[in-house]
Design brief:
The complex is a heterodimer of chains A (about 280) and B (about 190). With about 280 residues, chain A is of the alpha/beta class. Helices cover about 40% and strands about 25% of the residues of chain A. Chain A has nine helices and ten strands. In chain A, a hairpin with a 5-residue loop joins β1 and β2. The two termini of chain A are about 30 Å apart. Chain B has a single domain, classed as MetI-like fold, CATH 1.10.3720. Classes of the chains: A alpha/beta (about 280), B mainly alpha (about 190).
């Protein structure tokens, strides 16, 4: 069923950092029944990789991310981080939500420092790291601002800087740019791509924007709905990646990009339509 | 008033935090407090006079009873408005339960908590006067009762104005505090 299932674990260097094996997640419904959000999900993410998960709503993509984050536990299967089972949330897996969820009473600087305040790092080291990540995310000039004074894109930068300051093994992005306007969104895409290249952090990003997934990811994993499962795992091979030059927005006009985008869209649509048809016949 | 209401705040804020943050705290406390809240505080006055006599302790107790349950429930409601995402993210940044409470839930709820204290301060102030109407040898309520006996209506109005002005002053002080603490809120 998975297009490149065999190649995922074997291709490329390094062992997998995040590994999901036969993962399922059920939710209890109000009526007392059980809802299968995810079923039989196998997914391996290598260290340093940028993986995008796409799927229609109801495909359990956010659920998948919260399982990796350790905010919920799988009903079936195992979630491994660097070979060890995930037992709960921790600063080795940074999470950024669509809402940003920055602390409104803390300045930008103190938001970024939050995780470091909880880690055994010296005051000097904390200040040094905060300054570095503020500079990396272009927030140095805003370090004393309160979140209410920031734009949506700036708030997401704060959330990303805050997660990165703990120097996590993997950065989990849950539709981080879903609430932004198109121009800001493109700025943020370039920004996150640059941060990924600079820091070498592994990134797993959930999005419903197919173009965004194809532009950012080295791999696009398509999730099918009801129950959520891996429908396709598509490698992204675009020219700038081969040349090693930083990817820019012009890529989005290349025929290879458009073909990939169309392929992902077809996959998402196929599973969405089947799901919608099933839902229609049920109701 | 200060002692009775101070005590009520000191008790209700931790209880409200417990109820608002933990399912177990809610399950344990809400049914009881929901029930106690409906008992009118003035109905306790005879009991309090019998148990504590005419004087300061029974007034303190009355104000405590009149405000503690409301303030607990209102605090719990404020605590429940902390966005789930904020709490989830805090856990992924390495915070443990107690740290989430101290570094996320409390600061986020602080302005709302002061708001509910403001509302209940008004109730506390009402009960100061109620308490003095019935059992006191001095104070504003006592002055009203005495003025009634001697038919001094002008005195009663004077006392009412004093009561109103004091109430406004308390409210203003709390509102200023709230605005200062909640400067970050948009």
């Amino acid at each position: 069923m998975t297009v490149t299932e065999g190649s995922v674990a074997t291709s490329g260097p390094g062992p997998s950092l995040v590994c999901l094996d036969g993962v399922g997640k059920d939710f209890r419904t109000i009526a007392g029944g059980s809802l299968r959000a995810l079923d039989g999900v196998d997914l391996a993410v290598r260290r340093g990789e940028f993986v995008c998960l796409v799927g229609a709503s109801g495909s359990g993509k956010s659920t998948l991310l919260s399982l990796i984050a350790g905010l919920s536990t799988p009903s079936r299967g195992t979630v491994l981080l660097d070979g060890a089972p995930v037992t709960g949330p921790g600063p080795d897996r940074g999470l950024v939500l669509q809402s940003g969820a920055v602390y409104p009473w803390r300045t930008v600087e103190r938001n970024v420092a939050f995780g470091l305040e909880l880690l055994p790092v010296s005051r000097a080291e904390r200040a040094r790291r905060v300054a570095w990540y503020l500079a990396e995310t272009g927030l140095t000039g805003l370090r004393h601002a309160l979140p209410k004074q920031l734009s949506g894109g700036q708030r997401q930068r704060v959330a990303i800087a805050r997660a990165l300051a703990c120097e996590p093994q993997v950065l989990l992005l849950d539709e981080p740019f879903g609430a932004l306007d198109v121009q800001t969104k493109e700025d943020m895409q370039l920004f996150v791509r640059r941060v990924w290249a600079d820091t070498g952090t592994t990134v797993v990003m959930v999005t419903h924007d197919v173009e965004e997934a194809a532009f950012l990811g080295q791999r696009v994993v398509v999730l099918a709905s009801d129950p959520g499962r891996v429908a396709a795992d598509l490698p992204v091979q675009l020219p700038p990646d081969r040349d090693g030059a930083p990817r820019d927005l012009a890529v989005k006009r290349l025929p290879e990009f458009l073909a990939l985008r169309a392929e992902v869209e077809d996959q998402v649509r196929a599973y969405h339509q089947r799901h919608a048809a099933a839902a229609g016949s049920d109701g | 008033m200060l002692r009775g209401f101070g005590l009520a705040v000191a008790v209700s804020v931790p209880l409200g935090l417990l109820m608002g943050s933990f399912q177990a705290g809610r399950a344990a406390l809400e049914p009881m407090i929901g029930l106690l809240r409906y008992l009118p505080a003035s109905a306790f006055i005879p009991l309090l006079i019998i148990w504590l006599g005419l004087g300061e302790p029974s007034k303190v107790a009355l104000i405590f009873i009149a405000t503690v349950f409301f303030n607990t429930l209102m605090t719990a409601n404020v605590v429940r408005t902390v966005p789930a995402g904020l709490i989830d993210v805090s856990y992924t940044l390495g915070a443990r339960r107690f740290e989430v409470l101290r570094k996320v839930i409390v600061p986020h709820s602080l302005p709302g908590m002061i708001d509910s204290i403001r509302v209940n301060a008004a109730a506390a102030w009402n009960f100061v006067v109620v308490a003095e109407l019935i059992n006191a040898q001095s104070g504003l309520g006592y002055r009203i009762v005495r003025s009634q006996r001697f038919n001094q209506l002008d005195n009663i109005f004077a006392v009412l104005i004093v009561i109103a002005l004091t109430g406004v002053a308390i409210d203003l002080a709390l509102r200023t505090t709230r605005d200062r603490v909640g400067r970050w809120a948009s």
